[in-house]
Structures are given as structure tokens and as C-alpha cells.
Amino acid sequence: MRHTAPHLGRLAAGPRNSITDVAGVRVGHCTLDQGAVQSGVTVIAPHAGNPFTHKLPAAVSVINGFGKSVGLMQLQELGVLETPIALTNTFAVGTVATAQIRAALADNPEIGRSLPTLNPLVFECNDGYLNDQQAFAVQESHYHAALAALSQDVQQGAVGAGRGMSCFELKGGIGTASRLATVVLQGGAAAEYTVGALVLANFGKLPDLKIDGVAAGAALASMAGNKSLSDPAPEKGSIIMILATDAPLDARQLGRLATRAAAGLARTGSVYGHGSGDIALAFSTAQQIEAGAASMQLSLLQDQVLDPLFYAAADSVEQAILNALYAAESVSGRDGHRRVGLRELLAAGDAQGA
């Protein structure tokens, strides 16, 4: 089995194979790596400006709603993104939401006074196998540190919010990917758009893992010489999937795009188990919505030409999950718990076969 992630699907990747191939999108991490504390914060900035005053169309698809995120209800109702997107562990959601509000107040002092209140947007996964969540180690300063670290170059694996996450009972975390989609417009003209994905991968049972359509879980357990690597307990993980695109879509169409993230997730072997929180958010950078404007007019693609974007969404999510697995280093955390990185597992299999 190869030690680098294969390219998945028929579509080409963008130059970085990252969500930041969508112009204006940046990602920052703050990683906590202190013994029993293995956690952090990841922030996705949708554009370089002020998202409260210049909002973006967005939508959420809740595939399995076992989760404790903040901000989904208003986003579903109004269809706009007005903050960066924050990822962290379950017990840190409130702290990070407060940090988001403080950061927005620094840029918009009249929020909650002469201006409407803010809809903070924080997603979570439970990193409690490796991280002592009861330490409440994530602080507001860690959100601000992730904001300060925003970059087009995205670290993957056991970083930021992904530090303590597990995926298919191996080390999981942050993964990202992109795909280029060619859309045929009215009259036969063609336009190329980018769809980028970033995932916080914390789900799955090892026997279910598929890599590029091939059932790989049993072989991986055998490589490690430990067939008991897979825990027989029910799957209780989660995944957050963020999709960005420069295609001109409205909130309704972005909801359709977000739903296709589930196709990419399913290809890796997930069945969205009872205890798994599987949530996808999609936003478009093509057109900004100015706060307070009395009217707006968006130029949109027709629904019947969206299939290439749907392919790109599924492929980029599947690729991002696989990239998280291949990028993640092995991590030891609370009470001696350890998750082995995929590359270490493959190396162990090579050594056994030598």
C-alpha cells in the first residue's frame, strides 16, 4: 500500500490542492500539545475583508445531527455567512464563540447596539479520546492566535482543531483538497470554477475504511500485527466538512452543494452512525452581500449546469479525508491513549514484510 495519498476522481486539483485555491480563503491553526491536552482551534476566513459588513451566501447540510455547534439555525434561516468559521473541541464551543464575538466587536464596535447582534459560527468534534476536555484548555486567546496565523498555506493532520481527533481509529484531524470544475454555460461557452474542501475528520471504524474504493481497513490492522486494533464499540465520531467555491451560487444552491459532501464521506466507508455528528457547510465567494443594503441582485448559475460542481464537492471531501489520514502524525494523550498515524502503520507493515 502506498505511503502517499492517491489522487481521487477524474477532476484536476487546484495549484495547492487546498480550500485556499478558492481566491481569498485563508486558514489558520492554533495547536495545543501539552501531555493530556491535545486540542486546538482552526479558523477559516472566507475573504480578506470584514465578513460582518460584507457577508457571503452560505448553507448548511446536517447529514447526522449528533453535534453541539453554534450558529447553524440562523445560517439556515438567512443563508449568509457573517464571521470566520471556527473549528474546535466540543467543550470549547462556548469559549470560541465568545472569542468570535469579541473579535467582531473590535472591527464593528456598534454590534449589539446600533447594529444587529452577531451570529458566531463554531463547529466541534469530540477529541476526548486523546484530549482531556475537562481541563477546558482552549481559551479565547487561542482563537485569536489562529486568526493571526491565517495563511493560504494550510497545514494538515494533527494540527489546530485536528490535534486530538481520530479517524477510522487511526490519527485523524485536518485535511484539505480542491477540484477544478468546468461548467458549460448557455450558448456553449465554458467557465472553470474551483471547489475547495476542508474537513475536521474524527469518525469511522477501521474495518470500514476504504481508500480509493478499495477496502483497506482489515489489511491495515494486519500490517500492524494487531487485529484487535479495531474497537468493537459503536462508532461515535464526527466530521465537519467545509466547502468553498468561487462559482456564483445562492444559499439554496449552496445547500445542494453541501449535501454532496455526504457522497465523498460515504466513499471512505462512513455510514453516518448514530453517534456521529456529520455536518457540511458550503459558501460562495463570487458575490458579497453588503449589510444594510435595501436590495441586492445576484448573478447565478442555472441549476441544470451544477453537476460538475457536485462532482468536485464529493471528490474534494473524499480527498480531504484521505489527506488528513496521510498527513497526521501519531499522537499520545490523556491516560496513555495513543492514535497511530497512517504512515507509521504503513511503515510498520513494511518492516514486518521485510
TrEMBL record:
Record-linked InterPro entries: ArgJ-like_dom_sf (IPR016117), Peptidase_S58_DmpA (IPR005321)
Superkingdom classification of source: Bacteria
Residues that span the membrane, as ranges: none
Family: Belongs to the peptidase S58 family.
The protein, known as: P1 family peptidase
Organism listed in the record: Herbaspirillum lusitanum
